[in-house]
Amino acid sequence: MRPFDYYRPESFEEAFHLLALPDKTVIPMAGATDLLPGVRDEAFAPDVVVDVKGLPGLRDLKVLEDGALFVGAAVRMNELVHSELVGRHWAVLAEGAGWMGNEQVRNRATIGGNCCTASPAADTPPALLVLEASAVIKTIQGDRRVPMTEFFTGPKRTVLQTGELLAGFEIPQPPLGTVARYVKLSRRKKGDLTIVGVAALAYPQDGGYAWRLALGAVAPTPVRAPKAEALLTKGHAAERIEQAASAAYSFCSPISDIRASAEYRTAMVIAMTKRAIQGVLEQLEAA
Amino acid sequence: MKLSINGREYEVEAPEDRSLADVLRRELGLTGTKIGCGEGQCGSCTVLIDGRPVRSCVYPARRAAGKEILTIEGLAASWGDPERLHPLQRAFIDHGAVQCGFCTPGVLMAAAGFWNKYVANQSGPVTDEEIKRALGRNACRCTGYASILRAMQSAIHEYQTGEPRPPIDVETMEPLAVIGHSHPRPDVVAKVTGAARFTDDYAFAGMLYGATLRAAHPHARILAIDASQARALPGVHAILTHQDVPGRNRHGLVYADWPVLCDDKVRYRGDAVAIVAADTPEIAAQALDLIQVTYEPLETVASAETARRPEAPKVHAERAGGNLLEHIKVRHGDVAQGFAEADVIVEREYHTPTYDHFFMEPECSIAVPAGYDEAHPKLTVYVGSQIPYADRDQVAAALGLPHEEVRVTGALIGGGFGGKEDVMGQIHAALLAEATQRPVKILYTRAESLLAHPKRHATVIRIKTGARKDGTLTAVEAELVGDAGAYASLSTKVLTRATTHATGPYDVPNAKVDCYAMYTNNPPAGAFRGFGVTQSAFAVEQNMDILAHALGMDPFELRRKNALQVGSTTATGQLLRESVGLLDCLAWVEEQVAQLPPPPEIPHVRIAWGMAAAYKNTGLGGGADDAAAADVEVFPDGTAEVRSSSADMGQGLTTVVAQCVAEVLGLPFGKVRVLLSDTDLTPDGGPTTASRQTFVTGNAARLAAEGMRQRIATTAAKRWDIDPQTLSFAGGEIRSGDRVATLAEAVAWLQNEGRETRLTYHYHAPETRPLGQGGDMHVAFGFGVQAAQVAVDEATGKVQVLRIVAASDGGRAINPRALLGQIEGGIVMGIGTALSEEYRLEDGVPQTRRWADYQIPLIGDMPELILHIVEHPVAAGPYGAKGIGELPSIPTAPAICNAIYAATGKRIQTLPVAPESLKSPGK
Q1: Residue B923 pLDDT more than 60?
Q2: Domain boundaries, position A142
Q3: Distance in Å, alpha carbon of B916 to nearest chain A alpha carbon
Q4: For chain A, what is the domain count?
Q5: Which H or E element spans position B493?
Q6: 3-state helix, strand and coil shares in percent for chain A, rounded to the nearest 5
């Protein structure tokens, strides 16, 4: 494996300095579950790796004054899975995180890494999308907030510019009575990359329900499906599952790869969207 | 750093970045913890840290400092009494949950974590689902998980009630004194306590670590190799290329066409170009990066079909036949006439991909140079090999030594399935050991194992089957094209088996089968459980299913109508005179399927049954001298030892030969020791392949013991002045009328008379005929029938196998539980063949690069298994045994595919099953 220099800064000043090292390929690292195999396979060739786990606030998992949840970028998947705090209002995020990798990968991999890697197939972005989370980005000039709907710009690409660091996510508290689910299709039951992942969320509104849907692994980035959401929100959801699933499908431009062909992915958008909606409906009815 | 392991404190000097598994194994010699993948995937390295299961191969050792580490070596003591086993360990033994034993420590530790956290605080029953979740990501390639699940339930039951669950029993013939009893494997205690030693568990003073530079292209001319930079790296002791091979720079089990180190060309991505020996594996890997090889890339021959095109580049330029390695033919009757008589003709094309064996233990060889120490007067290679004598001869040839100057000593084998027949690191380790005059270990990573070793042949099979209205088969015509890969390996043999079995286990009066074994730039293809028959059965049994549907006949009825039976003649012209259990298998499976309650209905899930039959030869056949030798020695303490260079790769040969010898000498099973696979200490048992070892080495052991028994009998008869015929051997005693002596006393008599207490028997299986000459091509065949019940999710097309009902005729069951273990493991492997496994290549470049890229079945994929043993003994087999190693894995995939057709109306012509082809539109 190609050698590189490793730094673990404890302040953002130090980190920004390292990120700006001239003539060096500098890559920030959190859990390294993607970076290190990538270096081994020569997909990445960093001269310098900056470990962000020691930066202030990156391991925070706390409720803010306005009731929103702050999740630091270096919070690990299994911390989300087992967090009582996350389970209170944001359980769909824990559900997404629980699908990722295997136990030991989840012990290391972070939510920030899961998003910055920007794989269209990642398991936490659909949940973050339906929870209407924002990314908190640190720059030398100060903080900026980017809604997750704008965070991903393409496969393996985000709004993050060179020299910027993801600090974490602010996730508003969902309305009272919210139910959300994440369903995923992969070749195996667990521990495999996503063929299609769908997060669905609904909450009571005007005597009916308002809906949010987000999909992973079916387009260059994880996406919301506003047409499908509108269909469900405006009518009686149980009768519009087919229509909504078809509408979600119209948003997709999946690719063929080792796991599935584009045709199959597209068809599975319908199947899995239906399952996600049905799962939420069942819970709403049971409530 | 300080580590607390199994209640003991250790002070370890090791670099910061070492994994816990590596430190346990390399620094502390706690080799019970195994590394199967190095990626935290397979679970063989599981240990407990503060009571929680952790994959130690990806867990930094320094993080374990200050915590309590429990490894397999400490499991028994953690339960209280180091002299007694943990209930889980005992249950694994009693229920036959241990075969090769490589995954066993990891499975047991994962089970122990579950036990501590859950079972110990649980008074009610623990469901199978809970156990499957706890062990969900611990891979086992041998057992099929069924026995592991039963062992877990038994241990839990015993903990809660004081009573273990009885091991499952199957109906078998009346057992003899030892034969027919399910004795546990002699090495099983070592395997559940971490004491069992596989090759990588050995270390020698002054040992260096070897590594192999692999080809950068699937097909390229080598223009130059510059190793000067690598040689200059401190810690590097030797770098060898083709110029440093003193003997024959080729190896191969049939044709020596495979370079030890490539000279003019590389022919697949796993080809070895240079080898390095260094102080540590890390330095060796660094040195590989510094070797500069200049290539001229050549056009890749990426498939067998492209290899056949006249304009295709030649993989072996010097061969007159181009890329055709062999054209194999079966001619029987008159196919034109046969098809003319047919009312229905079915013709289809089937595709099977390349498969990897995925044995749990990656390849490892250690060579110690001649004269290195007292224990090694000659060049010695430690290796878990399926063919130790062939390894010895191939090492000797490459080093230019007479074969008696090389010794191959077998370590335990962590699974083989055909994948450990060809030489991998054996010659390289020997070359490096001789060059450095130090012991050298070459251990493959999982990635290297996947890259280098031979695979199962990818095939394209076009097959046409004709039948009359009443279902009588009239003709089969087939063309098979097999991807032999870069080197011959066992391709000609494997594809001969695919060809001769292409009529299925049926009486087919007219057959014409042609098979083309083609060289390509893919990994060499060689032996793999099923040996070609896996591929042809996939095609044959689906054509039979299509025929049954076309004729409106029940698939069991169609098979019954055509089934081989005593008196039938196979397509190669062999008259079957005995031991054809196919009809019994058909009857049992059909009856079971009819009796089973239907599963609960699930919306949007289609559930259906499908079935398939199969047969598989026992032994090499085809005119080969199918020989095996065994030694039996008796000792004055009343014990015996049996020795043969035949491999136990987990299948249980050790138990079989011990049972044969114990039966003959009237000894309790525990009084017979077994020594396998040492070319200096044990005679040649031949290759462990073709489901042959129970038959040939079982016979050699039995007949050696018979000779010894006769020797003892004549001595005793003389001493007692009786007719030797009146002597009986039982319970460790010999007896005639009221005269009794222990075997120990009898051995002392032999010694006093100066008679040898050791006897070697060279067994030769009954003569067979080459293909094309008619007559007996094989000494025996195993038969099997399986029915699969599958559930297909209409929306996603995902398939789950719910149940497999299987009847298998391997002749007499010498050890019924071990035989069941072969059946269960074979079936679950067959599920992987059908649904999930595929070694992917793109233009000769493997896309399956590491553990996580290949999906072998896990415990959650295991269906309900309903099993039956049919015992049609064969006269020449030991106590009537034939062989069972391969048969049970063969009918599974076609049975599943036929069930998928019944559920969805869609015919699977390409493996593995693609869910996307099965989803219903609009669901």
Answers
A1: no
A2: 61-171
A3: 5
A4: 3
A5: helix B491-500
A6: 35, 25, 40
